[in-house]
Amino acid sequence: LTEAQIGRLAQCSSRLIEQMPQLEPKLIQNKKKISRYVFIILFVSLHEKSVRELLDVMQLPYGSPQRLLEFRKYSAIYGRFDAKRKPDKPLTLHEVSVNEAAAQLCLRQPALLTRRDELFPLARQVNSDAFMIWIE
Length: 136
Fold this sequence. Notes:
It comes from Gongylonema pulchrum. Residues 1-45, 46-130 form the NAB co-repressor domain. This protein starts with a helix and ends with a helix. The chain is globular. The protein has helices spanning 3-18, 36-58, 65-75, 93-108, 116-135. The chain has one domain (3-21, 34-135): Four Helix Bundle (Hemerythrin (Met), subunit A). With 136 residues, the chain is mostly helical.
């Protein structure tokens, strides 16, 4: 994406975030019913580490050069490590711009990093708003 496109996504995400209430992080992501034993093992080994990493990312100082990079990494919707897509297949312009919209939203409302179910439609909305202006 060009700097102008990223700037437009940032403007649209700021406008949307201003209309939203302040959110709290939602730390429980997996609502599937699994056995208690498996849950304890998964929670202790994987969940605790990933939650700790995510909370560390959310607390990066605003001036930190790593902040944008880490937010882009953790807010990505398309091309994530757990995706079914082949890793060598490049993302489309739409996918890249939705990922950037998600990152811009999370920069302004870090709790969205823990609310992927809410982040995806918001990122698509920001992308749509910004794209409408690009074609006008």
